[in-house]
Please model this.
Amino acid sequence: MVKQEGLLPHPSKGKPTERWVFFIVRFFYNCVMSKRYKSPYEAESTMIEDVIENFDFYKCWTVMTLLKWTWGLNSETPNIDKLKSSAENRLRDAIDLAKKGESHNMTYYVSSGGLKANAWRNRFRQIEAVSLEFVLTDWQSDGDC
Model:
C-alpha cells in the first residue's frame, strides 16, 4: 500500500489530538464543501422555490374566477403565472421584513390580493421557514369585547 502525502490518518489511529483534527476536518468538508451546505440566500431561494412548486395555484385561480375576483384596475382575474409571480414577490417581501424586524421567533407576513406570505426567523436573523396561504376570510379575537 502506498502512503499518500497530505491525508489524515484513520481516526482510530494516532494521538487523541490527531483524531479531533480528523473529525473537525471531516465535519468542515461535510458542511461547507459538500452540496448540503447552503448560504442563507440559497436556503431562502430553495424555500421559495419549494413553496411556488407545491402550492396549488390552479385552485386559487378557480376560486378567484368563480368569485370574479380582480386585482387593481384590471377587469380580469389574474392568470396562474401572475399569481405565481405575485406569490414569489410576497414571499421575498416577508423574508425581508423578517430580517429587518426587531423580534425573533415570531411570524412576519405580507398579504395582498388574497395571498398571504409568512416568514419565521430565529434569533440569529436567519429564516427558518416560509409559507403561503390563499385567504378568503379570517377572524381573530383577543377576548376583549
Summary: Residues 40-134 form one domain. The mean pLDDT is 82.
